[in-house]
């Protein structure tokens, strides 16, 4: 009987939640064929009456079973609530009926799992994850069928398979601006709440100490458990390498893109720029001079070289460049995260979240080729710089400086973020007097050479570079008026900018958890990443929508998210190994759905 | 922490202010229930008559009709978007949907001239309410002839 309750409760909660969404008229902004569309999140399975009747019947069954098991007063109240749900239904008050059923589901869970211990919470979570996993799997099948079948807009069919998954995810979309802002504000927030320590010996103090002890222990255990999820690590890494490459080619298939339009917005600017440059240059030397005077010279040079090497035009070279850029980013992210956590699963998950999450979807929409390359080189540079500090190696430091200069040549924005993060870390190290002075020397050398390089490029050679771009953004884009209008700007950024690519709450939920982990387990490596986020805060608060989006794009949010997710996995593996496996599959399908949903709807 | 000091009071005030600001963000600014332009459920069908072929530089019209089960919603617009090749080559035009549900949109492909004799184009018709699409759309891929 307990098993029946454990199975029925997740079904009741999920489906009554969907019907509550449906009847409340909640709307979200979905990108459908490149159009941002306000779409009501309504779901009708058979018809509203039968849907609500089925839910009310499940609620009644659960409450009767619970009353039979417990024979206590509150369980009889649940029967009464279920009966009220049916009365609402008979009166055609569908919303009230679904809401009452949802309350029955939630209170039954609290009552049976937490208060009466009649059912095991881990078993309930297993069935809930299984149900969500099924919905995610149906979503992936829906997209695959659409891709194979082609032609019709997937959202226009009577009940597309991917509809349930999409609507559940988008029902959490109001959380995106709040969570992303909370994540960006997390470092000042930690400083603000520091004086509010709970009273020693109290329950909150005990809970906080347990959380801190668990986090510190889990982080130190990560390196020892590096091979624990060997198969999963390989699956996540392989998928992260291959899926964006497939997506790049998928974008130009007739099923997805019948008019064969160029997807990435910025790609056309790269193509036009190179065509103009080629047309206006008298010889190769002049062409090279003009390329190097731009702020994205390395990216332009790569597009030019590929088009010459394979005898293809700039347009073709640019649209398929993500097939090279994405695996490069994934590999540099993998080695950086591996260096941070010394755990293969954590590194692979960070790669997968980046390959299928907001970073890649936004990059596809915007055609942010230079940013893609610049961030990859920045990650590589940071990774080698961390190793140079660990090994006290000048050679490694020189290599990291070289890579950071290459990142400057690829795109000045990721370079600027790295410089700001390293500078803030150097200030932090200076403030913490117990940290070795050797670290400070390495950081200072890294900053000095890079700043000198940018100074020569921008002030002596008079080329475009990071400080010129930064000056222009600070003087023209940042303002207190943006801070006053922060929420409308931020909501626009989340819902509309680059097709709403950043509107994916799971990343920010895990990233927030990851930030807590990074703040508790104090390592210099973690501090650099925390300072990276802090460096983006003024831009995020004072910038317009595109500056906010670029900030989210250029901070290693997926490393934080993977840190948070791995902590959840560590916790679940202590309680229930099946649950942690279910969570891994769920995350895989959730992010895969995100990429497929975005890719399919990218062209007009 | 036996008594509240200045730091604690300042900290409580700041935490409350930030919490209030974030709650406003969640409940008011980002709340999907406050998206006022959402047209709700439209029990309508959109049918569009497309030309078989279009010619570069020559104006053409697309006529369509919105057939609704309930009353025809007011203030609807029909927007037609023609994309040929890349996003440089697009043209868009909008017209009001009449009370009987009919509309006619004219488009003139006058973007930079393509280098080929003919090119595949995607023609999309959206029904929009003020600025947000209602989700009603129709699409056809057709060939555009480019005169030499």
Which key features would you list for this structure?
heterodimer; A: 604 residues; mainly alpha; 2 domains; 2% strand; B: 148 residues; alpha+beta; Immunoglobulin-like; 5-stranded mixed sheet; 3-stranded antiparallel sheet; 8 strands; 16% helix; 45% strand; elongated
Write the layout of secondary structure elements.
The complex is a heterodimer of chains A (604) and B (148).
Chain A: H1 2-24, E1 27-32, E2 35-40, H2 48-70, H3 73-90, H4 94-115, H5 121-149, H6 163-171, H7 175-193, H8 203-222, H9 230-250, H10 267-280, H11 284-293, H12 297-309, H13 314-319, H14 322-341, H15 344-356, H16 358-366, H17 369-391, H18 394-410, H19 412-431, H20 437-460, H21 466-476, H22 480-484, H23 486-495, H24 505-520, H25 524-542, H26 545-553, H27 557-575, H28 577-600
Antiparallel strand pairs in A: 1-2
Chain B: H1 6-29, E1 44-49, E2 53-55, E3 60-68, E4 76-84, E5 90-96, E6 102-107, E7 118-129, E8 132-145
Parallel strand pairs in B: 2-8
Antiparallel strand pairs in B: 1-3, 3-6, 4-5, 4-7, 7-8
Describe the protein's architecture and organization.
The complex is a heterodimer of chains A (604) and B (148). Chain A has helices at 2-24, 48-70, 73-90, 94-115, 121-149, 163-171, 175-193, 203-222, 230-250, 267-280, 284-293, 297-309, 314-319, 322-341, 344-356, 358-366, 369-391, 394-410, 412-431, 437-460, 466-476, 480-484, 486-495, 505-520, 524-542, 545-553, 557-575, 577-600, and strands at residues 27-32, 35-40. Chain A is mostly helical. Chain A has two domains: 2-128; 175-265 and 317-600, no CATH class. A two-stranded antiparallel sheet of chain A has the order 1-2. The longest helix of chain A has 29 residues, at 121-149. Chain A starts with a helix and ends with a helix. By secondary structure, chain B is of the alpha+beta class. Chain B has two domains: 1-34; 44-145, Immunoglobulin-like (Sandwich), CATH 2.60.40. Chain B contains one helix and eight strands, in the order H-E-E-E-E-E-E-E-E. Chain B has one helix at residues 6-29; strands at residues 44-49, 53-55, 60-68, 76-84, 90-96, 102-107, 118-129, 132-145. In chain B, the strands form two sheets. Chain B has a five-stranded mixed β-sheet, with no helix packed on it. A three-stranded antiparallel β-sheet of chain B has the order 1-3-6, with no helix packed on it. The longest helix of chain B has 24 residues, at 6-29. The mean pLDDT of chain B is 82. The interface between A and B is large, with 53 and 46 residues.
């Amino acid at each position: 009987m307990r098993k029946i309750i454990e199975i029925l409760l997740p079904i009741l909660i999920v489906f009554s939640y969907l019907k509550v969404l449906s009847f409340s008229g909640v709307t979200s902004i979905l990108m459908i064929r490149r159009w941002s569309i306000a779409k009501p999140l309504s779901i009708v399975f058979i018809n509203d009456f039968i849907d609500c009747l089925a839910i009310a019947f499940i609620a009644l069954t659960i409450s009767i079973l619970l009353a039979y098991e417990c024979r206590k007063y509150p369980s009889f109240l649940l029967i009464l609530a279920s009966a009220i749900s049916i009365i609402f239904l008979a009166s055609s008050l569908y919303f009230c009926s679904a809401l009452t059923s949802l309350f029955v589901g939630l209170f039954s869970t609290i009552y049976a799992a937490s208060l009466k211990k009649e059912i095991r919470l881990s078993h309930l979570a297993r069935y809930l994850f299984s149900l969500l996993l099924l919905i995610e799997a149906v979503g992936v099948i829906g997209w695959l069928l659409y891709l194979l079948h082609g032609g019709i807009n997937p959202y226009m069919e009577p009940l597309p398979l991917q509809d349930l998954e999409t609507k559940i995810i988008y029902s959490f979309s109001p959380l995106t601006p709040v969570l992303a802002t909370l994540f960006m504000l997390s470092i000042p927030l930690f400083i603000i709440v520091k004086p509010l320590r709970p009273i020693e010996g109290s329950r909150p103090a005990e809970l906080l100490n347990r959380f801190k002890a668990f986090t510190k222990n889990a982080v130190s255990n990560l390196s020892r458990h590096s091979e624990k999820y060997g198969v999963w690590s390989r699956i996540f890494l392989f998928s992260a390498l291959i899926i964006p490459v497939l997506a790049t080619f998928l974008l130009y298939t007739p099923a997805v893109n019948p008019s064969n339009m160029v997807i990435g917005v910025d790609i056309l600017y790269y193509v036009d720029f190179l065509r103009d440059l080629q047309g206006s240059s008298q010889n190769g030397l002049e062409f090279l001079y003009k390329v190097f005077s731009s702020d994205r010279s390395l990216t332009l040079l790569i597009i030019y070289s590929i088009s010459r090497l394979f005898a293809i035009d700039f347009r073709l070279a640019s649209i398929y460049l993500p097939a090279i850029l994405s695996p490069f980013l994934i590999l540099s992210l993998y080695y950086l995260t591996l260096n941070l956590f010394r755990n293969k699963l954590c590194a692979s998950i960070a790669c997968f979240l980046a390959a299928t999450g907001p970073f890649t979807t936004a990059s596809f929409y915007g055609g942010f080729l230079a940013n893609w390359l610049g961030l990859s080189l920045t990650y590589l540079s940071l990774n080698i710089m961390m190793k140079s500090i660990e090994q006290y190696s000048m050679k490694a430091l020189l290599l990291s400086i070289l890579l950071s200069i290459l990142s400057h040549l690829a795109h000045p924005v990721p370079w600027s973020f790295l410089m700001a993060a390293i500078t803030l870390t150097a200030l932090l190290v200076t403030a913490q007097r117990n940290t070795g002075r050797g670290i400070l020397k390495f950081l200072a050398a890294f900053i000095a050479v890079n700043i000198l390089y940018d100074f020569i490029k921008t002030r002596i050679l008079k080329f475009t570079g990071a400080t010129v771009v930064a000056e222009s953004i600070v003087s023209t884009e940042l303002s207190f008026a943006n801070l006053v209008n922060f929420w409308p700007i931020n909501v626009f950024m989340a819902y509309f900018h680059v097709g709403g690519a950043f509107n994916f709450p799971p990343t920010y939920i895990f990233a927030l958890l990851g930030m807590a982990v990074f703040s508790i387990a104090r390592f210099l490596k973690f501090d650099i990443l925390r300072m990276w986020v802090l460096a983006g805060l003024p831009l995020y608060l004072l910038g317009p929508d595109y500056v906010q989006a670029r900030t989210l794009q250029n901070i290693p949010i997926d490393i934080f998210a993977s840190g948070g997710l791995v902590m959840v996995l560590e916790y679940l593996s202590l309680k229930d190994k099946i649950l942690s496996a279910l969570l891994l599959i769920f995350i895989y399908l959730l992010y895969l759905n995100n990429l497929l949903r975005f890719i399919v709807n990218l062209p007009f | 922490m036996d008594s509240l000091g200045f730091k604690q009071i300042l900290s409580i005030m700041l935490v409350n202010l930030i919490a209030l600001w974030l709650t406003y963000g969640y409940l008011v600014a980002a709340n999907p229930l406050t998206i006022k332009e959402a047209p709700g459920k439209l029990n309508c069908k959109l049918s569009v008559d497309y030309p078989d072929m279009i010619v570069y530089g020559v104006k053409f019209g697309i006529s369509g009709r919105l057939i609704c089960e309930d009353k025809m919603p007011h203030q609807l617009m029909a927007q037609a978007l023609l994309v040929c090749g890349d996003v440089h080559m697009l043209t868009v035009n909008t017209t009001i949907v009449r009370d009987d549900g009919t509309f006619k949109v004219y488009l003139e492909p006058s973007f930079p001239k393509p280098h080929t004799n003919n090119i595949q184009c995607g023609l999309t018709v959206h029904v929009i309410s003020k600025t947000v699409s209602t989700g009603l759309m129709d699409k056809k891929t057709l060939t555009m002839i480019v005169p030499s």
